[in-house]
Design brief:
466 residues; mainly alpha; two-stranded antiparallel ribbon; 4 strands
């Protein structure tokens, strides 16, 4: 799995070269946990042990091939997923559509694609607050999923013809002689070039270029009579630009490759882990590879930088990662949890799916750790440990969970098992002892202590990072 980027730019791309285990950076449980938490939503104990034995190349291949997660849903996953989505649209209940997406994330065997779908939901941030059309929101979500790893030009073109996005950004109001700049501004600033790589004149001229793009009967339509066919100057190039020509122009700009490289690094790397020269090199590779998101993703996930000590557990866990990751790792999927309840908890934690806060999406990072969100995370952890989110509040037997994987239910051993499962080992010296002291008491039964241990571990500062 030799990196093409390494071969093309050996001097400047050394941190992107393929990770190979060494004594200093061994392939251990810590790195296996890291791979799953960053590329998806955490792994089960059996999945971790499988990948620990098989090594990094086989493990990364499974991530990229969409076969990393063992099948956990007892029925036909695709049929059930479609049924949940159709019922959400038919009943016009947004909470059901959110539940559908959580069902997808929880039971998919391809969590990387779901994580990229979430990235594009944030990149082309569209809110149902304005649309009030669940059918179009579902259609957009399916679009992001189907093109999540495609060359960005394919995704961008499809997104700009997506009815939900066009309505969200007022494309039908963009007429010849009366241009509306919303779509043009976000196209330049958020979708492609990034702030600082265009002028206000470019926005105005791009808006003229996109006149006539509209939505009729919930489908993209071009009205030639509403299109401004005059000469426009965009990025210092003057011609009678048309919409598709503008898209092609933007895809060929260095700023677009740079913006995408930054987006991918924000998704898979910790804060400030990628240095400017790393992002520049990744942008070079993206330009060489037709802005292929799959290529960029694999380059990052197989790199020395991704598996470096400085990158492990140095990124704030998003609400989606926190909720889906904990539920998956602790195997709380049989019976399946009530994903409508999980979606509501995700909203309390600050990430309301299909309702991003503005056109810029969620800021992420440390913004996820506001006081109210931290309290909600602790409350969610307590409910999860008691089985409150499963149908009929199923009683959870944590002793049996430990025994299933050959681990003891003695509090010290159980907390050590949780540390291995969630972090790849004790995150700090004395951490296990501190958790045990917090939850142990002579007045509590063994099972009560184990429940408290699960809740306390998930609410700990260490569990807010991945």
């Amino acid at each position: 799995m030799e990196s093409t980027l390494q071969a093309e730019k050996p001097a400047s791309s050394i941190r992107w070269r393929e990770y190979r285990p060494t004594k200093k950076t061994p392939w251990n449980l810590r790195r296996v946990v890291h791979l799953h938490r960053r590329s998806g939503f955490a792994a089960t104990w059996n999945e971790l042990q499988r990948d620990l034995q098989d090594g990094p190349q086989a493990s990364i291949n499974r991530v990229m091939n969409g076969t990393t997660c063992e099948k956990t849903y007892p029925e036909d996953f695709e049929r059930m997923s479609a049924s949940i989505a159709e019922e959400a649209v038919r009943s016009n209940q947004p909470d059901r559509l959110k539940a559908w997406w959580l069902f997808q994330m929880l039971f998919t065997t391809d969590p990387l694609t779901e994580k990229l779908t979430l990235l594009w939901h944030n990149h082309f941030a569209t809110s149902n607050h304005k649309l009030e059309d669940l059918s179009l929101m579902r259609q957009q979500n399916d679009l992001f999923r189907s093109l999540a790893r495609a060359p960005f030009g394919t995704l961008l073109t499809a997104a700009l013809h997506d009815p939900a996005l066009l309505l969200w950004l007022d494309a039908p109001s963009n007429h010849k002689g009366h241009p509306n700049e919303n779509l043009a501004r976000e196209l330049l600033e958020l979708f492609t070039l990034g702030f600082g790589n265009y002028t206000e004149t470019d926005v105005k001229e791009a808006a003229r270029t996109l006149t006539g793009w509209t939505v009729i009967d919930d489908q993209f339509s071009f009205r030639a009579s509403q299109h401004d066919a005059g000469q426009k100057t965009i990025l210092n190039q003057r011609r009678a630009w048309k919409g598709d020509e503008l898209v092609e122009l933007l895809l060929n700009q260095r700023g677009t490759a740079q913006h995408l490289a930054e987006r991918l690094c924000q998704l898979f790397l910790g804060e400030e882990i990628a240095q400017p020269e790393d992002i520049d090199t990744l942008a070079d590779g993206l330009q060489t590879h037709n802005l292929d998101i799959d290529w960029g993703t694999e380059t990052i996930l197989q790199s020395e930088l991704f598996f470096s000590d400085q990158n492990i557990r140095q990124r704030v866990t998003s609400p989606t990662e926190f909720i889906i990751g904990a539920t998956r790792a602790l195997e709380l999927v049989d019976p399946p949890p009530q994903t409508m309840i999980l979606a509501d908890w995700m909203r309390k934690l600050g990430q309301d799916l299909f309702y991003p806060p503005n056109v810029g999406g969620w800021n992420g990072g440390r913004d996820w750790l506001r006081t109210s969100a931290i309290i909600s995370r602790a409350n969610f952890a307590a409910g999860l440990s008691r089985g409150q989110f499963n149908a009929n509040h199923t009683h959870l037997d944590w002793s049996s969970f430990a025994a299933k994987h050959g681990r003891s239910s003695i509090p010290e051993d159980f907390v050590a098992f949780l540390a291995d499962l969630l972090f790849g080992g004790e995150p700090n010296p004395g951490w296990i002892e501190g958790i045990v002291k917090t939850v142990s008491s002579d007045s509590h039964s063994r099972e009560a202590v184990l429940k408290q241990a699960v809740a306390t571990v998930l609410a700990s500062p260490e569990a807010q990072l991945n």
